[in-house]
Specification:
Elements (H helix, E strand, L loop, with lengths): L8 E2 L2 E8 L3 H11 L6 E5 L20 E13 L4 H12 L3 E5 L4 H4 L15 E13 L2 E6 L5 H10 L14 E2 L3 H16 L5 E10 L6 H11 L4 E7 L2 E7 L2 E6 L2 E5 L1 E6 L4 H13 L1 H19 L8 E10 L3 E11 L6 H8 L7 E2 L1 H11 L10 E5 L5 E4 L4 E5 L4 E10 L5 H18 L8
Antiparallel strand pairs: 1-2, 2-7, 3-4, 3-10, 4-6, 5-6, 5-18, 6-7, 8-9, 9-17, 9-21, 10-11, 11-20, 12-13, 12-19, 13-16, 14-16, 15-16, 18-19, 20-21
Length: 452
């Protein structure tokens, strides 16, 4: 169904136009279908999460409802080594919007670390591109910018006419875990021993679930995923026959003007359809000493990371132990912000904070060494970050969690899940939490896991 719109070229930019969108959910489905003909492509969406929220009551920092980059004028594809310097020059040369990701393995450029585990998907450590087409949706106003010979009006018509192919495929195979249950439990106990000995205070331990022979339909799967979990930092990427489908609810880092904002999540509890029980779960999460301890340790780490880029005395915790509700879970979210020092460039601010503390632990470097020691597979894009850079150097990046990653060339699908291990962790419960996260994610797209 075609939506009503207004159309006007701006006098200074012949390939830029604005439209009015009346149905955001329909438009999101249409642009996903339209993106099929473009490689690479990136769609970043809040899934209308903020529509019924009072944005003044808590530090949300919402900006765009949906953003997309389609096709590529220029591409930066690199391995860890000199990525940040290349990225800075790439942005300077493009002087335009950039979309893409940093993989977790970029840690090897920032610290004396390595990644020696198998990589099932094979995406590069970093991939950013200057799009041929940029789509920006805020409230009901849609802006289309074309860096190609396609006119914005024709692009809009193409989006509105795109028809999503419904996929009713029933999967005959399931995903396998890298760890047997007892092996996972034994490693959690070893990590607790590291905590007892003072090596770390907290560590995020993850495991991969995978299938190396699966015919997976990423477009239909993404629609199912975000319908199941319409989380505010979701994204869809297509790069060289490889796909990232994320229903993330966590912001890694945002730069707005000279302000940096990070919103780490530590603390999860399930939801219930009964409002009284659901509110009781929220209170339980808010007052759980283990969850609060996990959260505050990561908040301290984020404060230290931001202090590397910010003016002394400006780094502050705007909200501690905030409880935010999503479709299937309540999460404990804290917000830390600071004002950037003069002379610190945006790319340095990213380098000073990556990888995010919520997916590593504290102290960060030792936690990452132990992650490499005890995990079995390369994380890659998982627990990395997807986002955008504006022409002015503003940016917003998520934390890649609740994510399926697919290589259509080799028919390989990879999904990671994990949790924060502390001294108070009970290994069996950590394993159950891991299964709970993965079963919900896979169940949303019609997949399962083998009996563990």
């Amino acid at each position: 169904m075609r939506q009503r719109f207004t159309f006007a070229y701006t006098p200074m930019e012949k390939q830029k136009a604005e439209f009015i969108i009346t149905n955001k959910r329909l438009f999101q489905s249409q642009i996903l279908a339209y993106s099929r003909t473009f490689t690479p492509c990136a769609i970043l969406t809040s899934n209308n999460y903020y529509a019924d929220k009072d944005l003044t009551s808590s530090p949300i920092y919402h900006e765009y409802d949906l953003m997309a980059g389609l096709g590529a004028v220029k591409v930066l594809k690199a391995k860890a080594g000199t990525v940040f310097e290349q990225f800075k020059e790439f942005h300077k040369e493009a002087n335009n919007w950039l979309f893409g990701y940093f993989s977790y393995d970029l840690k090897n450029e920032i610290e004396e670390l390595k990644s020696g585990h198998p990589d099932l998907i094979g995406l590069p450590d970093v991939y950013f591109f200057q799009p041929e087409i940029i789509v920006l949706l805020k409230n009901n106003r849609l802006e289309i910018i074309s860096n190609s010979d396609k006119k914005p009006g024709d692009i809009y018509d193409g989006i509105c006419q795109a028809k999503h192919i419904e996929n009713r495929q029933q999967y005959s195979s399931a995903l396998k875990p890298r760890f047997e249950k007892q092996e996972y439990i034994d490693i959690v106990e070893k990590l607790r021993q590291h905590i007892i000995e003072g090596d770390v205070y907290e560590i995020t331990f993850c495991q991969e679930f995978y299938n190396e022979h699966i015919d997976f339909e990423p477009y239909a799967a993404f629609e199912k995923l975000v319908n199941f979990a319409p989380n505010p930092f979701s994204c869809f990427l297509k790069i060289e026959g490889k796909y990232v489908l994320s229903a993330s609810m966590e912001r890694f880092l945002k730069k707005s003007g000279n302000r940096l904002i990070s919103q780490p999540i530590k603390g999860t509890i399930k939801r219930d359809e009964n409002e009284i029980i659901d509110n009781a779960f929220k209170e339980e999460l808010k007052n759980d000493p283990k969850e609060r301890a996990e959260n505050v340790m990561i908040v301290d780490l984020v404060r230290n990371d931001l202090a590397k880029s910010c003016k002394p005395g400006t780094v502050k915790v705007e909200e501690l132990f905030g409880i935010y509700s999503f479709t299937k879970v309540h999460q404990m979210v804290s917000t830390v912000s600071g004002e950037m020092r003069e002379g610190v460039e945006w790319v340095q601010a990213l380098k000073n904070t990556f990888p995010m503390g919520s997916m590593t632990g504290a102290p960060k470097v030792m936690a990452m060494k132990l992650i490499e020691k005890y995990e079995k597979s390369r994380r890659g894009v998982y627990s990395g970050s997807v986002g955008y850079i504006s022409p002015e150097g503003g940016f917003d990046f998520n934390v890649v969690i609740r994510t399926l990653i697919y290589n259509s060339i080799t028919s390989s699908l990879s999904v990671h899940a994990g949790g924060a291990i502390t001294y108070d962790s009970i290994p069996e419960k950590e394993y159950e939490e891991c299964l709970l996260k993965i079963q919900g994610l896979l169940g949303a797209v019609g997949l399962g896991i083998v009996d563990c």
